[in-house]
Design a protein that fits this description.
6-stranded mixed sheet, 2 domains, 33% helix, 5 helices
């Protein structure tokens, strides 16, 4: 069960020592603990998360760059990540997966995808089919936790001086969870 991989954080005391007083710890404090949102003058964090409309983060203005893509998949968004690091100066990236993600098992959504593009966008059926078939494999994430862990490893390798933390958002309670797998960076 997915819950066996997740660590709940609902009080500041539950934030692991290596995350306290970091942008990751503050993210948990704002989202899960309800701490007041201060004024921030610059971004401390890049948050990469799914574009799913069912999840929203509670963050102060200017605290984070936020990159939202289907499944939180940033495999073709490295330039945007590099911009946040190079120009924006962020040194922490929170990768946030969530349960019941639409980018899992895309093949099962093929028919709905095609008919939706035909009805809502005015595409021809063949055009929509070809588009799905050419792109679905690129955007399929497999399991949410497996994907966010592999992306964290990939980004840690690509940006060795940047701390990357995979996290999980539960739709049922709107909380962020730490993934128990030894993936938390040493700060």
């Amino acid at each position: 069960m997915i819950d066996t991989f997740l660590k709940t954080v609902v009080t500041t005391a539950e934030i692991p020592v290596n995350l306290k007083n970091t942008p990751f710890g503050r993210l948990l404090e704002y989202q899960n603990c309800g701490l007041p949102l201060p004024k921030c003058s610059s971004a401390e964090l890049l948050v990469c998360m799914c574009m799913d409309n069912r999840k929203q983060l509670r963050l102060p203005d200017n605290f984070a760059y936020i990159l939202r893509t289907g499944g939180g998949n940033i495999r073709q968004s490295e330039f945007k990540v590099s911009y946040a690091i190079g120009v924006g100066g962020v040194r922490h990236i929170a990768l946030i997966a969530h349960d019941n993600c639409g980018m899992v098992n895309l093949a099962s959504k093929r028919k709905a995808f095609i008919s939706g593009l035909v009805e809502n966008a005015g595409w021809r059926p063949r055009q929509a089919m070809d588009y799905f078939d050419a792109n679905a494999q690129l955007y399929e994430i497999g399991s949410e936790i497996g994907f966010v862990l592999s992306e964290a490893r990939r980004l840690n390798s690509l940006y060795p001086k940047v701390k990357v933390l995979p996290m999980f958002y539960k739709l049922s309670d709107g909380k962020l969870y730490l993934i128990k797998s030894g993936q938390a960076p040493q700060l």
